[in-house]
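seq as requested:
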Amino acid sequence: MLTRSRQIVLAVTALTLIGGCGGAAGSAAPSTGAPATKDKRYQVEAAKADCMKQKGFKYVAFVQEWKVSHEDEERAAGDYQAMQKYREKYGFGVFAEHVYPDVFNGQDAGPESNPNGKIQSALSKAQISAYHKALDSCTATAINQVLGLNVKSDMDYHKQAAKARIQAIERTLNSDPTLVELASAMATCLKGKGYSLSEVTPKAMAEYGRQSFLDLWDRLGREQKDDVPDVAPSRKDGEPWTFYVPTLTPEQAKPYLQREIKAALDDLECGRDFYPVYLPKDNAVEKQAAEQYPL
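struct tokens:
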């Protein structure tokens, strides 16, 4: 049967979410990319569907779209009031998924809207194994054909994309003197509020708060499972993060969300000067990355 897992691109790597509910929302809005990027995504899906048909499997070309509101765009630009309004209710958008599932599951069409989920759910255990093997091969073939990238698998593609984005971040964001100065000031402010920071690069400062609650989220998810380690293994740059999403009722998640909201507002206050400068530049890097690795 199809497991409740999916991959989303977030920060500088691909994340694998296992179990639990849908997509995570950050401070900035997800981008659907330029028309040319969209066209490449559709071309890859069409090539993938054709490849699967040749292998005797049914696959429907499908591109997940995101809904981007005016408020999303304001947050993506680093607007303080827009970010404050969001964080006062949702924090970094981690535990809020459990407290406000309808809001977060409604951000995009949702994984259940992908017709391929229904196709896979009808397969036996043996069939699904063969299906996934064929799909991985066809994904690599489609990416090679359409994007001209030499990849061996879907995972290899995400690793290459992550590596390229990390390099772009180092060249631009983490080497920008203005951002370095603003990130340092933000770090000093957060340390003064009692937060412990291990890295103070611009990218690390932008992701610190959300990452800390994603780590807590994962730890709770791991504790609920008997077949995985309670502590996440170390991960090298460019490797996917595997998050085990906990099963929480809204009432169980509320105390975590309250902690998250406080941390998110502290983060925003300390980053009041940082975010309006950082986020537009970060969005430009993401747009460039999406043009090279558009899926």
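The chain has a mean pLDDT of 84.
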